[in-house]
Specification:
Number of strands: 14
Number of domains: 2
Distance between the termini: 30 Å
Helix content: 25-40%
Strand content: 25-35%
CATH topology of the largest domain: Aminopeptidase
Largest sheet: 12 strands, mixed
CATH class of the largest domain: Alpha Beta
Number of helices: 8
Order of helices and strands: EHHEEEHEHEHHEEEEEHEHEE
Structural class: alpha+beta
Radius of gyration: 18 Å
């Protein structure tokens, strides 16, 4: 058994892990995690195969996101995921990271509670299939870097490295449907991209519900097919907006925290970036 850092040579096996679990990540999503956090993406190798993974995406030292906790089905119930998570928590402590967060299933919640995580809020995955008609113009586009302050207020940490990557790479090029475009205006931003199972809209941060509607509409009209959208039920305008677009909830998780709470403005967040990103 070898617990080690993930490398680009692991990408295909990592994708097989997430795909077999029914998750939506693409190989581009895995590559982005390795690019952004090369020293905190871990795997366990057994019998010459990648048997389990866990990733930690730091947003400075104030916050880091734990995700992609996966184990091959034929290696489950051997404690591999627990060992990886324990190692990841130790590394986070060594790096001086104050707060850790993750999105947990109902099955995973009690496991993380034993590790000191507490429930912060609920998060729901909503789904819709079809083709959206154009619904107006979101407004003049601006560089996403100009909204660094708004996103910091909303999210509670600096994630501009991630947003810049999402705006120009995995959430802006769809190999099967042509080139897609992030929608970024003075009132907020919405990003989207293709997934293994469905297109994914998010993250979206907006100053008002009306702005969020225009921004997300600008994404949804760029591709047909099935869409996923991760919504926070405690942002009632966001939940209502998902319903107005025809989305329906299909999965419920909880957002959990280990460490001090972070000042956030939940009312500005209309779509999450993804369960592995926050």
């Amino acid at each position: 058994m070898s617990l080690r850092l993930l490398t680009p040579s692991d990408l295909l096996q990592a994708l097989a892990l997430s795909s077999s679990a029914g998750w939506n990540q693409t190989i581009t999503d895995w590559q982005r995690l390795l690019d952004l956090a090369p020293e905190t993406c871990f795997g366990i190798e057994l019998d010459g195969r990648l048997a389990a993974t866990a990733t930690l995406l730091p947003y400075g030292v104030s916050l880091a996101w734990l995700g992609m906790v996966l184990t091959r089905r034929d290696y489950q119930h051997r404690g591999l995921a627990s060992r990886l998570v324990a190692h990841t928590l130790q590394v986070a402590g060594d790096l001086g990271i104050k707060t850790l967060k993750l999105d947990a299933t109902g099955q995973g919640q009690p496991i993380y509670e034993k590790l000191g995580f507490v429930v912060e809020r609920r998060i729901e995955r909503w789904v819709w299939s079809g083709e959206f008609d154009a619904q107006g113009d979101a407004g003049p586009l601006v560089p996403i870097e100009s909204l660094a302050g708004l996103d910091y207020d909303a999210f509670g940490a600096n994630r501009m490295r991630l947003l810049a990557r999402l705006a120009v790479s995995g959430r802006s090029v769809n190999a099967t449907a042509g080139t897609s475009k992030p929608v970024v205006t003075g009132d907020g931003f919405a990003l989207w991209g293709p997934g293994h199972i469905a297109n994914y809209v998010g993250p979206c941060v907006a100053r008002t519900p009306e702005a969020a509607h225009s921004l997300i509409a600008g994404c949804l009209t760029q591709a047909a097919g099935t869409w996923m959208w991760d919504v926070f039920p405690d942002n009632e305008p966001g939940r209502e907006l998902a319903g107005r677009f025809g989305f329906q909830p299909v999965r419920r998780l909880v957002r959990m925290r280990r460490g001090p709470s972070i000042a956030e403005r939940h009312e500005l967040v209309y779509a999450a970036a993804g369960f592995e990103l926050g």
